Amino acid sequence: MIAARSRFPLWLGGAILLVGCVAAWSFSVGRFPVSPGDVWRALWAAITGGESGLAGNVEAIVLGVRAPRVFAALAVGGGLAAAGAAYQNLFKNPLVSPDILGVAAGCALGAGIAILYSLPVSAIHAFAFAGGLAAVALVVAVGSWVGGRDPILTLILTGVVVGSLFSAGIALVKYLADPYNQLPAIVFWLLGSFTSVLAGDLQVALPLIALGVVALWLLRWRIDVLALSEDEARSLGVDVRRLRIVVILAATLVTAAAVSLAGTIGWVGLIIPHAARLLVGASFPRVLPFSVVLGAGFMLAVDTLCRTAFTSEIPPGVATAFIGTPAFIALLAITYRRSA
Amino acid sequence: MTLEARGLAFGYPARPVGSGIDLILEKGRVLCLLGPNGSGKTTLMKTLLGLLPAQAGEVRIDGRDVASLTARERASVLAYVPQAAETFFDYTLAEMVEMGRTSHRGLFARPAPRDMRIAREALETLGIAALAERPIHRVSGGERQLALIARALATEAALLVLDEPTANLDFGNQMRVLGEIVRLRERGIGVLLCSHDPGHALEVADEVLLIQAGKTFARGNAVDVITDDNLSRLYGIEVHYHGPHVRPRLQAPRAP
């Protein structure tokens, strides 16, 4: 089932094509259906700066309403999957997700504080992002202060502790919040949503996510070696400590930007790299791009279902958990049976 | 190419493990490190590899202090073969061996055709080229260990450090691995072999260093050092070891 190296470009091309189809579907469906042809005309006109010849409301729906949401879902899904794949190599542990070092809790606390002080939307995003970075910085600082002979284990334990500290902070913020306006806002933010994503938010988050993913991509051959034991990686000539910091930085950038854009969306960063490994093998240089494509497509498909399948929207963070749990169990069964 | 330790003390600042170790590993020679559990073999090996800092004394490669070399410089002269352990990540044997080329590549560089060729040759040398595209979870423990030796060969380092490469292997695979060690020596590679088995030392080692509680217990030619008396005192048990006249030196056997 594993794609041989020579066939990998074919697999990747197929996956990209599939994501293209999901995007076409996502642009078309909704309260106001638009034909794929009109979607293409509107997008093409926006790219080339020409005239689409479509009615103004059609163009507004495609470009103003659906495009930010589609691109946000693609970026968040792809980014979280990339960060998850990198962390799983870094921690040599397949059960690691992008928020292992407390990013999500940090983002949530930042957003909660911003909502508590009734700051504008852009400030909520900025606070969430800063909170995520602060949580990871604290974990890394405490982790290296404690040191120990197994720095990876120390990091994971510190991540758990700092994560629960920040969760206590969120609980405190919720308790202090005004229960009629602020508390619902915090709860909805924590559930995660692409509904309120604006083109402006995207312009900030997208480059940050891209920057982190590109950094991981450039270092892919070294990150591959990181999955071996620390002694092995070092004896093969990898500066493990420095590489670890760079990977944490890149993955944190991606995750914090994604979470501050769309709230806490779990499971994508955990199960997508698993699915990628199942299809293209363990080699990180193949797992990373495949995870990005798969994660982007999965997130967009889930979000599109969330806004069309029922009369009222379901938060995608909830939907990914509903889909993610059985999918993960299935993946475990396949992987386990194969290695047994 | 020579690895030399002089007056080496090893361990951790708060927990010294051993001291006063002198040894020389030269190209085309096999040096066997032998000692009971907890005698400090693994810590000494890591210190020689430059993975742990020396607590006193020095480790030099061709006269240069190992601590002053970068990870990449070290990797291109000194390779490490760990015990084949279970990992989650199911690399193919070819991918595993290609990682041996890491120190020859730039930070962002993909493997060049030359890297692929050298990895391929290493697999062929160890006789496992047919398994190149097989995931590592689907080969035997012995083949996995051979793949790790192939990876070390692919680094093109002149000196190899092997950590109990025959642990957890059945008799046939043990002999296969030992045979490859003999062949490595014939290729002019210097091998430092950590082992639990005095018989293996007799079969392949030119020189033996017996370690007890972090100190040199005895050092010299295998036949001179591995005696009933030494083994009895080293392991604290009564030993009547048959010696080299029943365990002939290994002549690089090949799988039929």
Molecular structure report:
The complex is a heterodimer of chains A (340) and B (256). Chain A is an all-alpha fold. In chain A, 77% of the residues lie in helices and 0% in strands. Chain A contains 14 helices and no strands. The relative contact order of chain A is 0.16. Chain B is of the alpha/beta class. Chain B is 32% helix and 25% strand. Chain B contains nine helices and ten strands. The mean pLDDT of chain B is 89. Chains A and B meet through α9 and α10 of A and α2 and β6 of B.
Label this structure with key terms.
heterodimer; A: 340 residues; ABC transporter involved in vitamin B12 uptake, BtuC; 14 helices; 0% strand; globular; B: 256 residues; alpha/beta; 25% strand
Helix-strand topology string of chain B: EEEHEEHEHHHEHEHEEHH
Identify the CATH class of chain A.
Mainly Alpha
CATH homologous superfamily heading of chain A: ABC transporter involved in vitamin B12 uptake, BtuC
CATH architecture label name of chain A:
Orthogonal Bundle
Main sheet characteristics of chain B: 6 strands, mixed
Work out the helicity level of chain A: over 70%
Compile the SSE list and pairings:
The complex is a heterodimer of chains A (340) and B (256).
Chain A lengths: L7 H21 L7 H13 L7 H35 L12 H14 L4 H26 L4 H26 L5 H10 L7 H20 L1 H7 L3 H6 L4 H23 L5 H13 L3 H25 L7 H24 L1
Helix pairs in contact in A: 1-3, 1-13, 2-3, 3-8, 3-11, 3-12, 3-13, 4-5, 4-6, 4-7, 4-11, 5-6, 5-11, 8-11, 12-13, 12-14
Chain B lengths: L1 E11 L2 E12 L3 E5 L6 H8 L7 E6 L2 E2 L5 H5 L2 E4 L11 H6 L14 H13 L15 H14 L4 E5 L7 H16 L3 E6 L2 H7 L2 E6 L2 E7 H4 L2 H8 L21
Parallel strand pairs in B: 3-8, 3-9, 6-7, 7-8
Antiparallel strand pairs in B: 1-2, 1-4, 4-5, 9-10
Helix pairs in contact in B: 4-5, 5-6
At a glance:
Chain A has 340 residues and is mainly α.
